[in-house]
Amino acid sequence: MRLTVWTYEGPPHVGAMRIATAMEGVHYVLHAPQGDTYADLLFTMIERRAKRPPVTYTTFQARDLGSDTAALFKTAVEDAYARFQPTAMIVGASCTGELIQDDPGGLARALNLPIPVIPLDLPSYQRKENWGASETFYQLVRTLAGSSAPSGSKPPRRPEGLPARCNILGPSALGFRHRDDVEEITRLLGRLGIVVNVVAPLGATAADLARLSEADFNVVLYPEIAATTAKWLERTFGQPATKTIPIGVGATRDFISEVAALAGVDPAPLLAGDETRLPWYSRSVDSTYLTGKRVFIFGDATHAIAAARIAAQELGFEVVGLGTYAREFAREVREAAKLYDIEALITDDYLEVEARVAELRPELVLGTQMERHIAKRLGIGCAVISAPVHVQDFPARYSPQMGFEGANVIFDSWVHPLMMGLEEHLLAMFRDDPEFHDGATPSHLGTTTELEQVPAPATVQTEKAAVLWSSEAEKEVGKIPFFVRGKARRNTERFAADTGVALITVETLYDAKAHFGR
Amino acid sequence: MSDTLTMQKPDAISGCGDLPVLRERGQREVFCGLTGIVWLHRKIQDAFFLIVGSRTCAHLMQSAAGVMIFAEPRFATAIIEERDLAGLADAHDELDRIVAQLLDRRPDIKLLFLVGSCPSEVIKLDLSRAASRLSRTYSPSVRILNYSGSGIETTFTQGEDACLAALVPSLPASPQGCPASLLVVGALPEVVEDQFSRIFDDLGIDVRFFPPRHAAELPPVGPNTRMLLAQPFLAETARLIEDRGATLLVAPFPFGVDGTTAWLQVAATAFGVDPLAFRRATEPGRERARRALQRYRCQLWGKKIFFFPDSQLEIPLARFLSRELSMELVEVGTPYLHRQHLKAELALLPAGTLISEGQDVDRQLDRCRAAKPDIVVCGLGLANPLEAEGMTTKWSIELVFSPIHGYDQAGDLAELFVRPLSRRARLVA
Fold first, then answer.
1. Residue A96 and residue B54: Cβ atoms within 8 Å?
2. pTM of the entire structure?
3. H helices of B332-406, where?
4. So where's the catalytic machinery, residue-wise (chain A) (predicted)?
């Protein structure tokens, strides 16, 4: 057993849901109790998807355990097929379903549905979300792409004169900026004259997966999800895969060179262009103040490693901490950490990460939503660079991390939490003035102390209006959440003044509440 | 109404008084009882909830708690791993180790709940044995109890029932022959509890609340205890308190003006409070609540509402919305229907109201789409998809997390239903 307060990754079946939800026409029947349906809200609330995830849960109960949970599973598969008419189905069990050993794969096979039904074996007590997503994608591709060409045979090389074709692999539901990364990279590839054959799993159908072998090579954007699949495609169809993750200016340029070589095109015209503002913004004098800012980086391996490179080489920060919660990629992150003479932090224990941040006292934290909370508590600026995500990581605007526009977005979002150059300078000059002191945060950032002070004008009003508060009423108003307390206080005083009440009692407080409504 | 009924097999319908009850046993789209920890750990301020479960349980807790990431919350999960499953013998040693680690880190904890989950139930990990063993080790500084919040046994708010039921044996016995006292059962926000306290003081009724704010403040219980439920989902807790000799006062639940008055009236009658004194004590609150509701009446009047099953609050809320705000009830779904505790509520529903118990979510969605209600009360997994289909929704979880009981929250409760409607009106106007 392991004591866990917060987790970076969900269970592996949530990874499978991320693949099913990303695709079109794929349905997932999950042998699971009712509580597991919470996972739907990850997609409908956090990602704001307008459709329910394509998942049917059997929601077996204790009373079913003594009878026939296997029959329940078969009925769920039949009903889901009849209702949703998917073109492919994945079946499996959640952690509890795994324990009752009903063999979802065998049960589904016995139904002889006229569509591919892919059984998933996701060991819930050993593995986690990203592994589950990777395994699900791999099983889907193996089944659906494998049938399109006999294993081991290579597709015919593309005739001379036709543009090179590639697949983009890895983007999924609930991914950090996947939606916009795909758009940015597709555009970049287009400018190199490379045609995108299939993007998967995001937006792909079962038929699309069957066409994967038609591409010349694969672009792997998120190795956590697509590395296993890409390796299999390489073995089976001889499709090479990209290794560079195009996050940051340097990495994007490397990526352009890599895909150009794979596609046999000339990268020079694209590389010669002045495509991103990051290098100039970073050189402009205001950015002098970014020099040597101590930064702590934590996230999935792909984003953490990329962030460290940008921080050190493109923004002139000092990387004081680098780590990941993804043990599968510990080796890569340890290698990267050596570049900055630091020891990588490989852990999925949130409290350990918090302790390390507190100990290192960085000036900026680049992390996940978890590190955002750590940084907030410790009063350190923070930008989110990786999943786990929250609703604000799905911005309405176009906001990729990859490619040249991604570099622009990164410059803005990482520098924003820091003190602006001139402002820091002025603060240093006027350090001893009452308005400026060491505890002051940048003026463009709200602080909790300011929020707490909101009711202050009311006190002044109280003195003017000479309305008194009884101690009970004072206590009662203290129970109101601080962010509406000021308004409640002002409304009550206005009500008391209007109705000629001299002493505000608990009754007055609620009379006023009834009078003004919310 | 007849359309929705004919879609179901007739044998699935049975009566409850003159109310048709549709029983469904398909896919449920409801939280499990673990979710109750989100509000219970804030209510009992020195209690810690240790879930013995899987990564899924831990993930559920942080997803359900949403953005509320506290520095170090008073709940955590002991995640069962492969090696625990291999040999059950050491699962208890593992649990001992984790509890030691936890209590060492959190010396402020006075009450520790070991909370069972689906996996711990299925592998039959005996948490009651673990709790009594650990209690011997840590007594008297920490009391260790256990209950199950598993989704195979509990639905959402039933987790609170299971938790409180586990606490009942620890309640001290009230002294023989002491005067009758009132016990209000069910977790209430402090501000609401204080409001009710003041009213009961005015009525001259000696009142205690359960659960208490601190583990050491457990209310006594005995034959002189009159029990009033503040929440409609406390079947097991009420049964155990009755077994301790208490008398259950069956009343409508304190939502809205009439519900609150009826709830208080049942207590007042049981304690022989003079009717004039009752009127004096409740009139100001009633009057305020009436005024507060007046504001929202025309906005909700005649609007059709559809409840998906979630918290078991559905029937009392439907009663409030239909009787006090003239809303039209299309379907009132509840995960579980406790006929005795809800007797007074059911009697107040309009004749012919369709109640559904249990769930088959896809069929219920079909009924909902066909009925085209003006507002749908549903869980977080369904809300955005229904909004995208053009329906107006209210997240049911907000009804559990917000103070909605009593006179001074009646307006707030109505406003929770008004807001989505007025928002939609603004956005399309």
1. yes
2. 0.89
3. 343-347, 361-371, 380-388, 397-401
4. 286 (proton donor)
